[in-house]
Design goal:
Blueprint lengths: L2 H7 E8 L5 H11 L11 H7 L4 H15 E6 L2 E6 L9 H6 L5 E7 L6 H13 L3 E6 L8 H12 L2 E4 L1 E4 L7 E4 L4 E4 L10 E2 L7 H7 L1 H17 L5 H5 L3 E6 L8 H11 L6 E2 L4 E2 L7 E9 L8 E9 L2 E2 L3 E4 L4 E4 L4 E4 L2 E4 L2 E2 L4 E6 L8 E3 L16 E7 L5 H14 L3 E5 L5 E5 L2 H15 L3 E5 L4 E6 L3 H10 L4 E3 L5 E5 L2 H10 L4 E3 L5
Parallel strand pairs: 1-3, 1-4, 4-5, 5-11, 6-11
Antiparallel strand pairs: 2-3, 7-8, 8-9, 9-10, 12-13, 14-15, 14-23, 15-22, 16-21, 17-18, 17-23, 19-20, 24-26, 24-27, 25-26, 25-29, 28-30, 28-31, 29-30
Helix pairs in contact: 3-4, 8-9, 12-13
The structure holds guanosine-5',3'-tetraphosphate (G4P).
The site of guanosine-5',3'-tetraphosphate has 17 residues, from helix 2.
Length: 525
């Protein structure tokens, strides 16, 4: 198969949702369809995550399992599908955001009873920034929930994207009878079954009397009324608008009962984008270029604390990646060869000889890689699109064992390279501040510093609202701002100026007082 053919059959995406909406269940059903697993219940990671609160054994266990579920590749028909896991629950972190930079599209899962929840809203913001195409799956139709029209309105308002239903439920909860497939004009009747695929009633169009026979006249009439309303309210589905990230097709179903999942998958492979061009600082890289290029979007530390080895996850952006070929690690300028790169197929890791755009390769590493690093066949490229976002929680990190300050320093550096959290150094007093998006990260950092680096630290409170990257075309204005706010100025790891606002009010006042300064909530501007 040629490079172009390989590219067009690849679909690399992430499933995002608020915890408990059904992401794991849906992933599992997709794997079942792909023949990657044979029984439901094989994707266990999530179950373990749920029970892991602050039990360290559990955290260790999770880290092992999450390597296996980080990327799930499988073949479906002619397509090669890669699902990238987005850690949720207490693990929700920078990592989740960054994974979104390595996918070409996403599927959002929403619980029909709960609607759009906070975590989903945040992740959608990242998709919007990148114009990532989005498909929405409204899940748990077998349970009582909200009116589907209300859900559509909420999706539009909360996710700030136009929606277009491509399937439509016939009742929900106890009276749920099935889903009408608007995209392909078919009717699927609901038979609760956790393992099997549903059977389909073949119909010509919405007026086919087979629908009345299948669901009864009253429900058939209601369905026709709903569909008429849909056609009246929502413009016809436009694939190009979806690909531009302007409209999200919506499917309804029940992941647990394998209902509506195949419709979703079949439509997904047809409309979802193959690997897209990647923007580097220097130029746009097309996937079909002969020369290989890729970037590290995730680093996973090994569980064995005695060997500080990790796996760097590299997304192939262009050309063909080959085992044992020489590639340039652009940041260091060094040429590197990889003897044992791994591919992730059906949850198994295995050594791979070649990989194509859209594929994720796991490269064993002993500390050479940083998040965002680029590998190429030789060209000096720097990929964009791996922004840091303002953390939500901040603490001072203090050394509690003066004999181990070097170890602590090294540990902090490496954990930050891995993208566990962000480090800011206060320009006024030189104190180190760690920023995270979740409380658990502080505990993980403290634990790993001790167990992997032999360094001890303690946290001291600091009350901060947000970290904003500041810049201005007016150097004098920037200097004046930095002088006025000198106690709240910090440097990030790249040496950029960051303003640590201690409240929303202070931030608003600063914005009003210094109109020449631009305040950014992500490091990419
Ligand atoms: P997550 O990864 O998004 O956190 O969600 P997950 O798939 O783990 O699903 C959360 C809960 O919702 C699970 O129940 C799962 O069985 C249930 N669920 C998923 N899809 C559906 C659906 O279509 N209908 C209904 N009724 N339930 C659904 P649990 O009690 O937490 O776990 P389990 O013991 O049932 O496995």
């Amino acid at each position: 198969m040629g490079l172009q053919e390989e590219i067009s059959r690849h679909r690399t995406f992430a499933i995002i949702s608020h915890p408990d909406a059904g992401k794991t269940t849906l992933t599992e059903k997709l794997l079942l369809f792909g023949g990657a697993i044979h029984v439901a219940g094989a994707v266990k990671s999530n179950k373990i995550k749920k029970t892991a609160t602050s039990d360290w054994m559990e955290i260790e266990k999770q880290r092992g399992i999450s390597v296996a579920t980080s990327v799930m590749g499988f073949n479906y028909g002619d397509y090669k599908i890669n699902i990238l896991d987005t850690p949720g629950h207490q693990d929700f972190a920078e990592d989740t955001y960054r994974t979104l930079t390595a996918v070409d599209s996403v599927i959002i899962v929403v619980d029909v009873a709960k609607g759009v929840e906070q975590q989903t809203r945040k992740l959608m913001e990242v998709c919007r920034m990148r114009n990532t195409p989005v498909i929405i799956f409204v899940n748990k139709l077998d349970r009582e929930g909200r009116d589907p029209f209300d859900i559509l309105d909420e999706l539009e308002n909360e996710l700030k994207i136009a929606v277009r239903p491509l399937s439509w439920p016939i009742n929900i909860g106890a009276k749920f009878k099935g889903v009408y497939n608007i995209y392909e004009q078919g009717l699927d009747l609901f038979k609760p079954d956790k393992q099997k695929v549903t059977e389909r009633v073949e119909i010509d169009d919405v007026n086919d009397s087979a629908i009345d026979e299948a669901v009864g006249e009253t429900d058939a009439a209601k369905l026709r009324e709903d569909l008429e309303l849909i056609e009246g309210v929502y413009p016809e589905f436009d694939v190009d608008a979806y690909l531009r990230g302007e409209v999200a097709p919506v499917f309804f179903g029940s992941a647990l009962n394998t209902f509506g999942v195949k419709e979703l998958l079949d439509c997904f492979v047809k409309i979802a984008p193959a690997p897209r061009p990647t923007q580097a600082e220097e130029r746009v890289i097309e996937p079909q270029e002969e020369a290989f290029s890729g970037f590290v979007f995730k680093i996973h530390a090994n569980m064995d604390p005695n060997h500080r080895s990790c796996i760097a996850f590299v997304k192939v952006c262009s050309g063909k990646f080959e085992r044992n070929a020489n590639y340039k690690h652009v940041r260091s300028g060094k040429m590197m060869r990889f003897a044992a790169p791994t591919a992730f197929m059906a949850q198994k890791k295995s050594v791979v000889d070649e990989a194509y755009p859209g594929d994720i390769v796991g490269i064993p590493d002993t500390g050479n890689f940083k998040i965002g690093d680029t590998l190429t066949s030789g060209e000096n490229l720097h990929f964009k699109g791996l922004p840091s976002f303002s953390p939500e929680m901040f603490k001072y990190i203090e050394n509690t064992d003066p004999m181990k300050s070097k170890q602590l320093e090294k540990g902090i550096q490496q954990l930050m390279d891995e993208g566990v959290a962000q480090l800011f150094v206060n320009q006024f007093n030189g104190r180190k501040i760690i920023g995270t998006v979740g409380q658990l990260q502080f505990e993980v950092i403290q634990y790993r510093l001790l167990h992997e680096y032999g360094a001890q630290c303690r946290w001291e409170p600091i009350s901060l609202y947000k970290a904003c990257w500041v810049e201005s075309d007016d150097k004098a204005a920037l200097d004046a701002f930095k002088k006025r706010k000198h106690q709240f100025m910090a440097l990030d790891r790249e040496g950029r100026d960051v303003f640590l606002a201690d409240s929303n009010y202070v931030l608003q006042m600063a914005q009003a007082d210094f109109p020449a300064i631009r305040f950014h909530f992500s490091s990419e501007f």
